[in-house]
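--- STAGE predict ---
source: upstream dedup step, 1 unique chain passed
mode: sequence only
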Amino acid sequence: MAFEALQDMKFSVFSDIWSYGVTIWEIFTLANRPYPGVNWSPEFLDQLYNGMRMHKPSYATTKMFVTNFLIAIHETQMSVRTVLVLVSITL
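--- STAGE serialize ---
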């Protein structure tokens, strides 16, 4: 779930973009569990806010990772996340 969904239970197109990135990550890891070994907790939320993110999937190229995963799931500010995804799609 997106940062804002975990923190404030806010769901929107912005949280959908985060979920898109996680889903694509799962596909390119052949269904690995996101954030393996980590359970939801306030500490996990703090780690996300402070920059903890998932690694590049082994079946994704660096370009795919940068344009699909990093942009979709690495930005905690919702509006910036949307703009970056739209830019990457047009490229």
